[in-house]
Write a structure and sequence with these properties.
The complex is a heterodimer of chains A (about 160) and B (about 180).
Chain A lengths: L1 H17 L1 H35 L2 H8 L4 H14 L4 H13 L4 H13 L5 H8 L1 H25 L4
Helix pairs in contact in A: 1-2, 4-6, 4-8, 5-6, 6-8, 7-8
Chain B lengths: L1 H6 L1 H20 L2 H34 L2 H8 L4 H13 L8 H10 L4 H14 L1 H11 L1 H26 L16
Helix pairs in contact in B: 2-3, 5-7, 6-7, 7-9, 8-9
The chains are: A mainly alpha (about 160), B mainly alpha (about 180).
Amino acid sequence: MIQLLVFTIAAVLISLLLNKKKTTAGVKKGMKMFLNLLPPFITVLIAVSFVLAFLPKEVLQKLLGADSGIAGFFIAAGLGSIALIPGFIAYPLASVLLKNGVSYPVISVFITTLMMVGIVTLPIERKFFGWRVAITRNLLSFIGALIIGAAMALIWGLV
Amino acid sequence: MKNYFSENKKDLIIISIFIIFAGTSYYSGFKLGNRVTAGFESAFLEMIAFIPLMFILIGLFDVWVPRAIIERHVGKESGVFGIVWVILFAMLQVGPLYGAFPVAYMIWKKGASVRNIFIYLGAFTTLKIPMLSFEIGFLGLRFTLMRTLLTLPVFILIAVIMEKLFAKDFVVYEVNKSKEMK
């Protein structure tokens, strides 16, 4: 985060030195895009907070644990698709799940869908790409994540 | 300003209701409500810290980077090198998936090919360097390497399919101009 802040400040300063008018236009343009996106962003965050509050860690563990079998894959894919957990929470959570008997392939499905599929962010994605493209991309990513999980299950013990 | 309110009416109503909900939960000691608010707070703080910065960079990118450069490196005729470029570009970034969409809009506007836009999204979501270091830390190098190597061909394939399906009339909208479509 600090790197990004430093980088942005440096970029703005260099840009200012080179051309003041262009810089103002660029920053203004960026801020305009930001303001247009802020309301739908906040709405999505509200939705996410509700989902997370109803799905505490213990519940996740039960759903994905060793005795869930092949169903665990699909539950992991479903949960990963719905949840929108930032990386710094998702990875510690994944490692807790591992220690509690969830297998690596299931974790890989969970992590991959978490990253590539975003059902709650669909309304935002749609604003950029339209419904058709957004839904197709998410659907393909969902299938892709299951394939990655299956491949992990096949080769995890071998490599 | 008036325009801004009318265009975002639905979201602003939801936000107002949520603020009332959070306030009520706080004063009445409603446990579940407070858990929701706490979750919202941490997610919101994470977002507000970096998204404005990203948009400033996107704005600067827009005014400084000429279309010809992007088109040449990641445009329709860019081939394998285009794929490598766009993956490297994506790996250097930070933030969650929704942060990638405005960048996708910008590189589309500057002439990136449909395939490369989706490769960008794939690489952005799964191969960001800051995130990989996290993943290695928590889940181990072996897991991270295997997942990464398996994910790479999958999202390139997804991008190829997306290009096949949508290249004809592909558009990335600058948000709020999307009102004109269905």
